[in-house]
Design goal:
single chain, 162 residues, alpha/beta, Glutaredoxin, six-stranded mixed β-sheet, 6 helices, 6 strands, globular, redox-active center, Thioredoxin-like_sf, AhpC/TSA, oxidoreductase activity, antioxidant activity
């Protein structure tokens, strides 16, 4: 009986953690670019954000609501790219848990070269965040500079998702 209670406890803990990351990988620009290419014919929603950016934090609940709606669709994927500093990685992990972020989060540890990689994502991107870029087959389909409402996000996704 004691073992059964222990197994049930472990199961409930697992269910509570399901969908949340306990670690955040840090990548350089080239790794992120490769990752975007690898998603193939999925609609990949890539959101650049930071825990210290008020508009980013404000839009994330909408992103999670929309992500939870589409996440079972095999032709859809959301990737949250944190631009927080590498030394703040623990804060990002704590933020993921506190805000119940269900999309995959990576930390882009390449701030020193941002003037090189920002124009590779979008020539008109001035470096401000939040920014959301939509990709399919590695090709940029849509660029959104600034905060997105739930409706804007849903409308853009429905435009490109079969």
């Amino acid at each position: 009986m004691k073992n059964l209670i222990y197994i049930a406890f472990l199961f409930l803990c697992f269910i509570g953690l399901k969908g949340q990351q306990s670690a955040v990988p840090s990548v350089k620009y080239e790794e992120l670019e490769k990752r975007i290419q690898q998603e193939g014919d999925k609609l990949l929603v890539v959101n650049f954000w930071s825990t210290t950016c008020a508009p980013c934090v404000k839009e994330l609940p909408h992103f999670m609501e929309v992500n939870n709606h589409y996440k079972e669709n095999p032709k859809y994927k959301m990737l949250l790219v944190s631009l927080d500093r590498l030394v703040d990685k623990e804060r990002v992990i704590k933020f993921i848990k506190n805000k119940n972020l269900t999309a995959e989060v990576i930390l882009l540890d390449d701030i020193k070269r941002m003037n090189t990689w920002i124009p590779k994502f979008e020539k008109n991107w001035d470096g401000n965040i939040p920014v959301t870029i939509f990709y399919k087959n590695g090709e940029k389909m849509h660029f959104n500079d600034g905060e997105m409402s739930k409706e804007e996000l849903e409308n853009t996704i429905s435009k490109y998702l079969p």
